[in-house]
Amino acid sequence: MSTLHVLRNRIAQKSAVVGIYGLGYVGLPLALRFSEVGLKVVGFDIDTSKAALLNSGQSYIERITPDRIQHALDQGFEATTDFARTSEVNALIICVPTPLNRHREPDLSFIVNTVEAALPHTHPGQLVSLESTTWPGTTDEVLAPRLRAHGLEPGVNCALVFSPEREDPGNPHYGTKDIPKIIGGTTARCLELGTALYQHAIQTMVPVSSTRAAEMTKLLENIHRSVNIGLVNEMKIVADKMGINIHEVIDAAATKPFGFVPYKPGPGLGGHCIPIDPYYLTWKAREYGVNTRFIELAGEINHHMPHWVVGKVADALNERGKAVKGSRILVLGLAYKKNIDDTRESPAVEIMDLLQARGAHIGYSDPHVPVFPRKRDYHFDLESVPLSAQTLASYDCVILATDHDGFDYALLKSHAQLIVDTRGRWTSAPNIVSA
Prior knowledge:
Blueprint (H helix, E strand, L loop, with lengths): L2 H10 L4 E5 L5 H10 L3 E5 L3 H8 L10 H9 L3 E3 L10 E4 L14 H10 L8 E4 L7 H12 L9 E4 L18 E5 L2 H11 L6 E3 L3 H32 L3 H8 L23 H11 L5 H27 L8 E5 L14 H11 L3 E5 L23 H5 L3 E4 L8 H7 L3 E3 L10 E3 L1
Parallel strand pairs: 1-2, 1-4, 2-3, 4-5, 5-6, 7-8, 9-10, 9-11, 11-12, 12-13
Antiparallel strand pairs: 6-7
Helix pairs in contact: 2-4, 8-10, 8-11, 11-12
C-alpha cells in the first residue's frame, strides 16, 4: 500500500495528526477548529511563552477564550517548540507571517525557516499545506524544491497544497469553519488529499486548478480592498478640501441597490494582509516585465494617510494657538480595526510615531490592548490610559484612530478639548475636526 494511500485512509478515518506551524491569529484558530472536530493537533511555534500559555490552558488572543484552549487540551492538543515532533504528524500546515523587508519587498524568511526546521523530521506520506499569503509561484518555487531535496515528491510520496488563510478577526458572523476555503494542489492527487483534510474542519471547500491560482486568488481579494480603500481615502481628502462630509456622501451612494459597494475611509491600512499583500504581487510582476501602476498608486495613497492625519492634527492645534511640539496628545484605539486586540501594521502606531517625532507627548487608550505590544519597528513604553472627564480634559488633542464600541463617545465629546476624528464617528461640533 502506497504512503499516500495510507495518508488518505488516515484522513478519512480522522486518525491523521495535524501539525499547525505558527500559533498566531491564523494558526491558533485553525488548530482549535481541527481539535473541535476530533483530530489530534500538535501546535508548533518558536515562542516558548506561547507554548507554555497554551499548555496551561491560557490564551494570548482576546477573542479566543481559555475555555476553548482547555477544550482543545482535553482533545489531545499540545503546543511545542520542538520541531523534531514533525515526525509525529501526518499534515504540516504552515501559518507563519510573510512581512515586507525595509525595502518593501517580500520577506519569506519565516516560511523558509519553518520549512528548514521541519524538513529533517519529515517522511514520506505527509501532507504539506502553506497558508501564508505570498506571491504566485511560492509553493512551486520555494517549497517543492526543498521537499524534493529530501526525497519527497509531491503527488508521489507526499502531498503539497496552497490554501490561503481568510481569517477576519472580530467578525461575529464568520469564524474559521464558516469561511469558504480556497485550495490548489501541486497535482490532482495533492488537491484531493488536501481537500479531504480541510473539509473535516471547513464547511465549504473551493478547489482551483493550481497552487498559483490559489496564491493569486488571495492576493486579488486583498488588492481589491486596498484599491477601493485607496480610492475612498483619496475621495476623503478631496471632499475635505471642498468642505463636504465624505461619510454622508458614502451613505447616500450606498442607497443605490446595484453597482456600488461602500468602503469606509480611515487613517490608513492595518492588519497583516491589506497593507502588505499588494507588494507581493507588484514585486513578482516585475519578473514578467509588468508595472502594476494602479496597485502601487493605491498603496501610496493608503501609506500616506497617517501623515495626512498628523497634518490635520497640526492644523487643528495651530488654530487654537498651540504647536504639536510640547502638546499632550491621546490616541484612541491602538488596534488596526475596532473591537479586536490585533495591532499589526496599525496606522494608529504610525500616527503616534510621527507625532512623537514632532515633539508631542503621546499617550494611548485602548480597552483591548492594555500594554503597548512588542514591535519590530516601534517602541513605546506605555500602558492604556483609563478614560475619565479629568483625563480627557488634560490632553490638548484626542485622536480617534480606531472606533471601538467600548469607548464612551458622549464622554469624549463632552470633555475632550479637541478631537480629531479619523473614522467619521461624529457630526460637526466646535471641538471636533474630521480627518
